[in-house]
Design brief:
mainly alpha, three-stranded antiparallel β-sheet, 3 strands, 8 helices, 5% strand
Length: 232
């Protein structure tokens, strides 16, 4: 029988994204009404901030004296502060409860599954992965919990902590190293995920790029309209 090998980076990402989708599904289902009503409020607050930015910029350009000084004073403009506060409040009201539910549900899901006899979430099981301690044995609930909580550090390092999982031979992310854990793959290490997993990752990349382009176009349209209103 072939000994388990360290799981590759893309296998781990495919498993994580599947699990994230599973956890997000009930959160979105039960929080859809709040998101539906919060979306227009966020758009309205952003439009208000754009109006404040455009008006403040025109005032700075028309102000006598050093232009640079006027521009530096924009950050202290009460109109901008009020607009930014309104946008922040709208975002928190619409997304805050859903994000909190996603975090709590994700913690319970990952810790319970990875400390169980099968040592894996559903996403990891589909990819043939399992979480183990440094000796390759089943991780305790405390170790699984520490690993999940330490994952915040991998995110806070701008994903550099996650990228450590791409470095052979151990392929351990930052949170794996902190918790004394590892992610193993049954059999010989695969050079890349299976075809369906590659298609899943590609679909995420396409959807992410499309969403980013749509968001940029929408923001540009709002800002342009704000400038036109400021110009009268």
């Amino acid at each position: 029988m072939t000994a388990p090998a360290a799981a590759g980076f893309w296998q781990r990402y495919a498993a994580w994204s599947l699990d994230a989708a599973l956890v997000a599904a009930p959160v979105l289902l039960f929080g859809w009404r709040r998101l539906a009503t919060g979306g227009p409020r966020i758009a309205e607050a952003f439009a208000g901030l754009a109006d404040a930015v455009a008006t403040a910029m025109l005032d700075a350009l028309a102000a006598p004296g050093a232009v640079l000084t006027a521009w530096l004073q924009l950050t202290a403009d009460p109109r901008l502060q009020a607009g930014a506060g309104a946008l922040t409040d709208a975002i928190v009201a619409a997304l805050g409860p859903q994000l909190a539910a996603f975090v709590v549900l994700g913690l319970l899901y990952h810790v319970a599954c990875e400390a169980a006899p099968w040592q894996a979430t559903l996403g990891k099981r589909v990819l043939g992965l399992r979480v183990a301690d440094a000796a390759g044995q089943r991780a305790s609930p405390a170790r699984a919990l520490l690993r999940h909580l330490a994952g915040a550090l991998s995110w806070l390092t701008l994903n550099l902590g996650h990228l450590l999982a791409a470095l052979p031979p151990q392929r351990r992310a930052l949170h794996d190293r902190i918790a004394g854990a590892m992610v193993l793959q049954a059999g010989a290490a695969a050079s890349r995920p299976p075809r369906w997993a590659r298609a899943w990752i590609a679909a995420q990349a396409v959807a992410g790029a499309a969403a980013a382009l749509w968001l940029l176009a929408a923001m540009q349209a709002v800002l342009q309209a704000a400038v036109e209103r400021a110009l009268g």
